[in-house]
Specification:
single chain; mainly alpha; 0% strand; elongated
């Protein structure tokens, strides 16, 4: 199966950077969402905050990679145009 042209744009470094940033967003959102949970037990409240942070982090993961693909493609096209 042949790779699509956009699959050649991201390197392993880009994917690692996205994973590190996504992990940071997950930790940040888990901390920020803690006061908005329904439980008074700290352990249950942290679990609820972590489960809430998962879809936010996944959305960030996709947005980060889409941004990197567009930016790399734009730079590649502008370099080829010169």
């Amino acid at each position: 199966m042949e790779n699509a042209p956009y699959q050649k744009l991201l390197t392993k470094g880009h994917i690692a950077l996205g994973a590190i940033l996504t992990l940071g967003v997950f930790v940040l959102m888990s901390y920020l969402l803690l006061p908005f949970t329904f439980s008074t037990d700290p352990t249950v409240a942290q679990i609820q905050a972590c489960f809430t942070a998962i879809p936010i982090s996944a959305t960030f993961w996709f947005a980060c990679h889409m941004f990197m693909i567009v930016l790399i493609d734009q730079r590649k096209r502008s370099k080829n145009a010169k």
